[in-house]
Amino acid sequence: MTTFQRARIEAGDRTLEGIYYTSEAIFERERQMITRRHWLCVGRAEQLQSPGAYFLVDVDGESLIIVRGHDGAIRAFYNVCRHRGTRLCRSGEGQFSGTIRCPYHAWSYRFDGSLVSAPHMDEVPDFDIAHWPLVGCAIAEWEGFLWVNLDSEAQAFEQAMAPLVGRFAPWQLDRLRRGAHIHYEVAANWKMIFENYSECYHCPPIHPGLVPLSPADSGRNDFLSGPILGGYMSVQPGAGLTTSGRRSRPAVGTVSGADLERAYYYTFFPNLLFSLHPDYAMVHSLWPEAVDRTRIVCEWYFDPTEMAKPDFDASDAVLFWDEINRQDWQICERTQQGVRSSAYRPGPYAQREGLAAAFDREYLRVLG
């Protein structure tokens, strides 16, 4: 049985020093120690319906091709031809016809990455076509979500995410389908967004439309330290986190009992904010673009049976959270402006910011 409790700060917990939000040198260290060494959520398996279906993703300047093979397996390859380094593909998503073919000299690769054709290379002594496959990247699937890791010696995904196995089974996340998405450009450091998401101390002044539906002091957590943090907040009986304040769809999967009056919020270090509601799921993926700029993709997932109905409308959830998101981004941007000041000094965390403090501890541990 899962145990939930309030997250508490530790003695002496303070916010991070300003340089962690403003220093180019620290941002570069984050790229090397975090972005290139951790599992990052990049998409969903249902984006790849058939062999040869693909999409591109940029991870810290590395273009990756995510493609489904004839064997049904999904693989990730660097978008680089083994001949002269040419970008193999420029379109963000699509369907390869037969092979992945380089536009420069027509070297062609199977969907498993193996080189199948290299015109006239049989004229080169000792050239062996089997020795020149595409360079692969580690990829894993969890509940329909796809994750990549640029580190060739990365911890196995199954080990890194072991606490999550079966954790959200009632939501049947692999069955859900994307009903809406919004891209945001936020002028704030990525860590501020994680910290903001991790606490509701700010909710009464920042989110007046949220607090009547979900009390700001109702948070209870089952992940209190490490790369996964979070738990639930209560939702008022009969209420839903929508523009109408009511839940307008049946619960997804087998969600029942107490979960019908809870919203679950988790952070997966270092790029995913994960929200589960009785009738939908919402995820934010974070992509740092500069020390003071973050691209965020917010996606909403619903039961495909509901989505197939002619009167299906996702806007009650989307508009509700779009307003909450923009309130959060605005205050994060104001905080980014403030921590640049020479007057800024780390301040004391409140007890209701226990998970934000826990995030900082994990971040500093990983940064080294």
From TrEMBL:
<dbReference type="GO" id="GO:0005506">
    <property type="term" value="F:iron ion binding"/>
</dbReference>
<keyword id="KW-0560">Oxidoreductase</keyword>
<dbReference type="InterPro" id="IPR036922">
    <property type="entry name" value="Rieske_2Fe-2S_sf"/>
</dbReference>
<dbReference type="InterPro" id="IPR001663">
    <property type="entry name" value="Rng_hydr_dOase-A"/>
</dbReference>
<dbReference type="GO" id="GO:0051537">
    <property type="term" value="F:2 iron, 2 sulfur cluster binding"/>
</dbReference>
<dbReference type="InterPro" id="IPR017941">
    <property type="entry name" value="Rieske_2Fe-2S"/>
</dbReference>
<dbReference type="InterPro" id="IPR015879">
    <property type="entry name" value="Ring_hydroxy_dOase_asu_C_dom"/>
</dbReference>
<dbReference type="Pfam" id="PF00355">
    <property type="entry name" value="Rieske"/>
</dbReference>
<keyword id="KW-0411">Iron-sulfur</keyword>
<dbReference type="GO" id="GO:0004497">
    <property type="term" value="F:monooxygenase activity"/>
</dbReference>
<dbReference type="GO" id="GO:0016705">
    <property type="term" value="F:oxidoreductase activity, acting on paired donors, with incorporation or reduction of molecular oxygen"/>
</dbReference>
<feature type="domain" description="Rieske">
    <location>
        <begin position="39"/>
        <end position="148"/>
    </location>
</feature>
<keyword id="KW-0479">Metal-binding</keyword>
<keyword id="KW-0001">2Fe-2S</keyword>
<protein>
    <submittedName>
        <fullName>Rieske (2Fe-2S) domain-containing protein</fullName>
    </submittedName>
</protein>
<keyword id="KW-0408">Iron</keyword>
<dbReference type="Pfam" id="PF00848">
    <property type="entry name" value="Ring_hydroxyl_A"/>
</dbReference>
